[in-house]
Write a structure and sequence with these properties.
alpha+beta; five-stranded antiparallel sheet; 3 helices
């Protein structure tokens, strides 16, 4: 099995979920975004971007208590399937689309034959 061959959707999903293991591609300090990238064959790559955000805990906010709602730091994720023939911004994808791409392109040959 090559480095990018997956037998199940769980393996594909786990591979994407473990994006930090791919290594940091770059950090953009002005926008507080960190990008992680793994290269695939045929010039494709998957990028996961972490964007720092502040969340508000509205569920536990009680305006009658005269306090401000609680806030906490969190991370939003953006996914990209880099295509060598497209601009970066045009490559935004959902996690579901990434899993489908990995299934279509990086499944063992036996699985692909069974699906035909």
């Amino acid at each position: 099995m090559s480095a990018h061959t997956f037998k199940s959707n769980k393996e594909r999903e786990d591979f994407i979920k473990d994006y930090r293991k791919w290594g940091e591609w770059f950090h953009e300090p002005h926008t507080e975004a960190t990008y992680y990238k793994t290269n695939l064959s045929k010039g494709y790559a998957i990028v996961v971007a972490e964007h720092a955000v502040t969340r508000v805990d509205w569920a536990n906010y009680r305006p009658t208590q005269g306090t401000n709602p609680l806030t906490y730091e969190s991370v939003d994720l953006s996914y990209y399937l880099l295509d060598p023939n497209k601009h970066f911004h045009d490559c935004r994808a959902s996690k579901t689309a990434l899993i489908k791409f990995l299934k279509d392109e990086y499944s063992p040959k036996e699985e692909q034959a069974a699906c035909s």
